[in-house]
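Bumping with the actual sequence this time:
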Amino acid sequence: MREHDLLPPGPLVVAVSGGADSTALLLLLSDLAPQLGLDLHVAHFDHRLRPRASAKDAQFVADLAQQHGATIRVGRAETAPKSEDDARALRYAFLRRAAREVGATRIATGHTRDDQAETVLLHATRGSGLAGLAGMRPLRDDIVRPLLAIGRAETEAVCAAARIAPREDRSNADPKYARNRIRHKVLPELERINPQVRAALARLADAAATVSDAAQRAAERGLDAAATGDGIVLDRLDDAARDDALALAWTRATGRSLSAKHRAALAALASARDGSASLDLPGGRALREYGSLRIELPAAGARRPPGDQLLTEGRPVVWAGWTITLATAAPEGARLKAPAPSSSDLVVRSRRPGDRLAGRIRIKVQDVFTDAKVPVRARASHPLVATGSGAVWWVVGLKHAGGEATPGRWIFATPPQAQIEAARRYTVTIDGSGRPKAE
């Protein structure tokens, strides 16, 4: 936890299913809470996959939370999810709602080194690249995994030492799930070759994460140096990071990740310099003109943005996939925020020629987009919050005007899902120079 700075003091949501791993997580965090300044809040989610056992699971977790002085929130799926991915999405949506309710910035889950080993094998089997081999990270967005350094045997020992019999989920033995086949068939066979194979796979994940992160940073630097206007000057790309940079450019522009086959096709297109050529790929078209490459979105993605929409307190505005809310507390899913101006007459709209930020310096909105390297084709659909007089208060997620604001009142924004997952350039901070700086 110290190595990765996982747990700042304050409220913490602890996801507890009632199994050995999550039960041990709560026991350990309860012991550490006074030292770390943690305020624990237990969250338990019923997927409705085990109707007969779910009530007992919830009662077990509630009793455990009470014993350790933690509040508890219980969520339940409306219907049983159709897949593991659906179940995961429902669970994390509930956990994030719980975190917002208690003001927590982190959610702790009970994933262990054994889970990491299973994840690495699953990703390798499915043909993942380095990012997949990196498996689960100790810290990813708001999710922390303090137990990745220990295994399932250790969590069971923690429960036994506390004289607690955790709940058992029989679905963990069901061979219809790929992870269970990895757990009960593949890993035992690998342990006959190397009894410490789980620890070895965890080390592989750490090594892959280090290399993957370095490659990502190199690709970002290379792309930033090569980007100009709405294109990429190919000769400015470093050969070693070129393929990664092009794949990153594609994801930023389209919100889609390329397969290895499509990455190779894009690299081949970019390798030539004579004449022009184009290539259709998932999410758009790559057009090379001599030494420059542009990414064109389909016509549907280039449609005109919606018109101006009035922004009033407590009534979210959905605009070009964004959700903008004027409120005193963060709504569900909010990722970005800015202080609200004293003006009560606010609108959400697209950019207009000559737009400038309100305030003394009057920075051009065009310069804000350019400094943050927002793709040209994305700028028309990037929301602005403006006052009734037309002055731009907030280029959402990039820069706000500053100046007179209403205490305790905020403008919150949730980007489209594709940008949340793949275009982190829309989350920025402002450094001392007042210029946008990508996080």
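The tokens above came from a reply further down the thread. Confidence is low (pLDDT under 50) at residues 421-439.
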